[in-house]
Specification:
mainly alpha; 2 domains; 10 helices
Length: 222
Amino acid sequence: MICYHTNTFNKTFLLVMAHVTIQCRLIASGDTRQFLWQLMTEKNTPLINEILLRIKQHPDFPDWRIKKKLPKYFLARQIAELKNNYPFEGQPSRFYASVNKIISYIYKSWFEVQKTLDWKLQGNVRWLEMLLPDTELIKHFDNSLESLQQQATLILDSIDSTVNKDQISTILFEKHDKTKKPDIRSAIIYLLKNACAIPKKPETTEKYQDLKRKVEIKITRL
């Protein structure tokens, strides 16, 4: 079995191997099928495993993760270096080529997942930095919650009523970034904290701490 450092590797490899298995010609003799199976399990799979381990342990891997790609010709060089060593030697050329394709596919998929996770992490870190209790937000309105809510209402009214909540959140984040006015920013944060609506009840310390903790947990998990 091949051991990967994320579940993405396991799922991707199984899909690839299933595709390879489906393509095998079942009319081949038993000896031929046995030979191919041994070739895959005793030589080809261990070669994939070894290269994946080398990638994981490579000192430049953190940089590759940031760039979201492996260096050009890296896999080809690894295969060329290992193909004459036990137990990887003696495979048909197409099997060595398949090693390159499989690992390339695995890492392409994994890097795409990492892009999404990085984007989510950055978004949550940004939100945590913005997140302030109402007691701080109302300071820009002479400590008046009513004035804060009035400004928040004006902002909501300026947004097309046909826009859904997810789109409203995106618009509010964009407005927050574009303005330098602390009162507008505070009103936007107030809306984002309350699902893009004006809450009926005032915020409690417990409610704010719970909201903040949920964001911190998301960041930790990412």
